[in-house]
Amino acid sequence: MQLNESLIRSVVAQVLAEVGRGGSNGSPVAPKSFAGRFGIFTCPDEAVAAAREAFERLQERTIEDRKRIIAHIRRISMENCVELGTMEMHETKIGRLVHKIEKLKTLGERSPGVEFMRSEVYSGDHGLAVIEHAPFGVIGAITPVTHSLPTITGNSVSMIAAGNSVVVNPHPSGKKVAAEGVRRFNQAIYQDLGIDNLICVLAEPTLETANAIFAHRGISLICVTGGPAVARAALKSGKRAVVAGPGNPPVVVDETADLDNAARCIIKGGAYDNNLLCIAEKEVFVVNSVFDAMMTAMERAGAVRLNAREVETLTKNAIIQVGEGEHKHDAPSKDFLGQDAAVLAKGAGKDISEKVELIFGETDLNNPFVPVEQMMPFVPFVRCKNVEEAIDRAKEAEHGFRHTSIIHSNNVKNMTRMGRIMDTTLFVKNGPCMASLGLGGEGYLSFSIAGPTGEGVTTPLTFTRERRCSLIDDLCILGKPKR
Ligand code: NAD
Questions:
Q1: How far is residue 130's CA from residue 119's CA, in Å, rounded to a whole number?
Q2: Which residues on neighbouring strands pair with residue 165, listed in sequence order?
Q3: Which atom of ligand 1 is nearest to the CA of 449?
Q4: If you measure from the C-alpha of residue 227 to the centroid of ligand 1, how many angstroms do you get, rounded to a whole number?
Q5: Dihedral sign computed on CA atoms, order 435, 439, 441, 447
Q6: Ligand 1 pocket member 223 (CB < 6 A)
Q7: What DSSP element (H or E) covers 428?
Q8: 278 lines ligand 1 (CB under 6 A)
Q9: Signed CA dihedral, 90, 225, 330, 264: sign only
Q10: Separation of CA 369 and ligand 1 centre (Å)
Q11: At 7, which helix (H) or strand (E)?
């Protein structure tokens, strides 16, 4: 048989496609064993292998291709926000539907993408040194139940913008919507660009699968978003970790504040998604001279005040003790966490309209709602004799997480004092918490705010490693030519 050159080429292309090295005609190809899985795995080893393959294929692509990939994630988050947000609400059973939908839309629109990538250059007598930001490879991400798919959306956009792929271990109570979102993202990316499994998700996540990711040799970097236990586990993993840990954001209101604005802001931030945001207003310290006026301003702005007996009843019902022995501590009860204000009010023995977004009441410092990250739309207000005391109390309530703090004031000295003492990643003045993420304020958005490890509001650059490329004694075109 005479060998025909074009036949040989087509057979070779087919074989290469089968083994996952790419086809000659640009048609979608992926490693045979994982193609068509669209990122859904139950075995961590398989998920990491598939994500590794996807990473290598992404490495062969242009920055324009990264933009196209991200455009699919953005489009799906925005176009499917009602369906996926409703799914998230039904599955997790916490938060408010309207905000579940809005979060997906916002993360799709605003998560930092390729436009955040940059390089630095040193130019001088000895030539040029260019510092570029390269991907790590496969990132292991752990995501919270409070924002299951939104966190995956934001992480995926930023991690892929930097050239990485990702394996996600979602919270078990948000695993279905996580898998559905990831499936849609991968399917669209695969159909358009021929790369499958850039975002892999463990469909049956457990502590064991999380630990397998922490320990896996194929994972180059970990990014966890969650509470104290997972933050500690990530820091002990022996891998480089970006840790977006818990918060308990205090608010200080001093005698110079615009009280009506303060009240509107506390309701907007503290009630958002029923107080599930890690940055949300969790307790308020008000100076005595404006305390009563502030309580009235809260009512004027639409929040409902509980009296002392109602606060006591709610506290008994909504805060429970967990842990054993020396680890015993107060925690929010699952029956109330992330529930509507009307449900909490019922737990306090009060009937209120379903339309009320936030309830509040005066408590003393010892009420567990002050130190506990309650994640429910009841906010305790504590009376303080002056701003110094209010700031000191705020410092204690924040537990040194250095996450978020807020002040309402028109006294720049008070703002400065609080900023210095709190030392938090986000420090908001005269706005609701989300203004610090560019939603009504300046700056940009991410749902992974890395306080403990110091990266702050994460961007694609968070998920890169620096590489330096030096050219010696040439291409610096400034100054006198050398002889
Ligand atoms: P969580 O800590 O219960 O769970 C978070 C994730 O970690 C889940 O996927 C969970 O399965 C996993 N996990 C928990 N313990 C683990 C362990 N020992 N080892 C491995 N994995 C473990 O938190 P949650 O209720 O899902 O989310 C709310 C918490 O997350 C709050 O504390 C909130 O402040 C925090 N959070 C922080 C940020 C941030 O950007 N800093 C953003 C969102 C939420």
A1: 7
A2: 138
A3: 40
A4: 4
A5: positive
A6: no
A7: strand 426-429
A8: yes
A9: negative
A10: 19
A11: helix 5-19
Q: Which two tokens stand for residue 263?
A: 């009240």
Give pTM, 2 decimals: 0.93
- Supply 173's token pair: 């109570």
Distance from the CA of 210 to the center of ligand 1, in angstroms? 12
Helices and strands, number each (H, E), in the chain? 15, 20
Q: Which two tokens stand for residue 471?
A: 């050219």
pLDDT for 55-108, tens place per residue? 999 999 999 999 999 999 999 999 999 999 999 999 999 999 999 999 999 999
Question: Which token pair is 335?
Answer: 């029956």
User: Pocket of ligand 1, candidates 99, 158, 166, 171: which has the most ligand atoms within 8 Å of its Cβ, to mutate?
Assistant: 171
Q: What six digits make up the tokens of 189?
A: 């990316």
Measured CA to CA, the distance from residue 54 to residue 197 in angstroms comes to 6
Between β-strands 250-253 and 283-287, what pairing exists: parallel, antiparallel or unpaired?
A: parallel
Q: What distance in angstroms lies between residue 436's CA and the mean position of ligand 1's atoms?
A: 21
Task: Give the DSSP H or E segment for 347.
Answer: helix 341-347
User: Kind of pairing, strands 165-169 and 199-202?
Assistant: parallel
pLDDT digits (tens, 9 = 90+) for 402-419: 999 999 999 999 999 999
Best residue among 236, 278, 333, 445 to mutate for probing ligand 1's pocket (most ligand atoms within 8 Å of CB) is 278
Q: Ligand 1 within 6 A of 174 CB?
A: no
